[in-house]
Amino acid sequence: MRTTCCSTRMRVLFSRTGRRIAAMLTVCLACNQANSQSFGLMRFDEHYEQYRDSTRTFYNGIKYTPLNSRKTVYVTAGGELRWEYVDFRNEDWGRLGLGHNSFLLQRYNLHADLHAGPHFRLFVQVRSAWENGRKNGPRPIDEDKLNIQNLFVDAVILHKPHRTLTARLGKQELNYGSGRLISVQEAPNLRLAFTGAKLMYATPNLAIDGFLMMADSVRTGAFDNKPTRELNFWGVYTKIIIPRFPNIDLYYLGFRRDGSEFEEGREKERRHSLGARIWRHGGGFIYNLESVIQFGTFGAGRIRAWTASADLGYHFRHAWGQPSINLRNDYISGDRQQGDGHLQTFNPLYPKGGYFGFSPQIGPVNLIDIHPYANVHIGKQLLAQADVVMNWRYSLQDGVYRPSGGFNFGGAASRERYIGTAYLASLVYTPNRFASLNCGIQYFRVGAFVKDLVAAPENGVFVNARLTFKF
Q1: What are the backbone angles phi and psi of residue 224, rounded to the nearest 5°?
Q2: Per-residue pLDDT tens for 136-181?
């Protein structure tokens, strides 16, 4: 009976969704698209000063509304609507008996960006995220009915032609590098945000950010999220752009949590991360090499952890479809001796949700993976990608962790290393810069480790369709 009701609700939601999409797309496709700026992952990084003297249309008026006669004070607005249908079979590999699960995720964002001359800015963004139909209820990444996503002020302290120094204060999203340790987590329904202060220095070839942050606690009601009121995330992130040479990221990150859980136990965690990344994107040979060492305390014990990653590929920019082929390999440390009080398990802090595929069942902790993948453009609007991700435990004394880095279940009782292999295929259709449709399928074949610990192991199947509209 409940399944029938959920299916009926989904059909109603999809019907309403279709009408909303049609109306919004009609408006935007009728807009003047003389400027083809694409929308950014971080909406506050977009700039619309070029609309200052543009032809006044409905869309241009949304993106640039002057508030004084000299047009030095202006506001820009935008938003996002996202709907995702998910069909999951054996998400837990049969361990908890979840079986077949299908549900609908919805996400809505609206933002306004006020600029008062070149030295002051106020950015505000509200978000609403909903889950419908998941038989065991929403996960922590699924639902937050209405809350503030970003609310900060920028004060430009130094404004030279090739140098700026900006202070940012308030609630804000963070995203750095490849998203290995600091990601906004775009793939899940709820994006991450912090409350704190950031100082940003930038030149054409150098960017240095320093920040002090409090993580936000997420509740599912309306305007009920609150910061922890404890400094629990701080650091310095530097990006160096070297023309015709590899680009370099260098960073230090500090992290604290009073109740961190690993197979070793649950204790107060104080962790420091030192990392370096060398990378190159574009045509020809492309690569992303990153390494991190971690140290600190876990209760009365010490932390010594590390990770190293190599992602190597080639982009055939002048061939049909501009295909690229890549091979990725990660080594991520796990605990060497369960029960000794010390910890060698790597903590990915705030990792990118889809770091090992668009719907990973394994997180970047205690892991060795080999990940070949390739993509090709089929025409100008369709991108196809295929992946194979093979996963092993790094340490036999440690277990398996979730994509967020949270502890899933222990593994010290098993001597098996091979977790399983995921096979993925996806298509991204982008008819214009306002809309995109992403469809994917994933098959996870369980390995000897899962078969050893799960009484009735099952292979996993994941199918999703995600429609996104931005303006």
Answers
A1: -120, 5
A2: 889 889 999 999 999 999 999 999 989 999 999 999 999 999 999 9
- Give residue 132's identity as a one-letter amino acid code: N
CA angle 224/225/229 to nearest 5° reads 125
Q: Can you tell me the distance from the alpha carbon of 155 to that of 153, in angstroms, rounded to the nearest whole number?
A: 7
DSSP 8-state class, residue 441? E
Contact status, residue 112 vs residue 148, Cβ threshold 8 Å: no
- How far apart are alpha carbons 435 and 417 in whole angstroms? 42
3-class DSSP assignment, residue 15:
helix
The torsion region of residue 395 among left (phi > 0), alpha (psi -120 to 50) and beta comes to: beta
Give the tokens for residue 99: 């079986």
pTM of the model: 0.89
Q: How far apart are CA 452 and CA 448, in angstroms?
A: 6
Q: How do residues 22-79 score in pLDDT, each as one tens digit?
A: 444 444 444 444 445 689 999 999 999 888 888 788 888 899 999 999 999 999 999 9
Q: 348 near 180, Cβ under 8 Å?
A: yes
Task: Residue 402: count other Cβ atoms within 10 Å of its Cβ.
Answer: 16
Structure token digits, residue 237: 């992130």
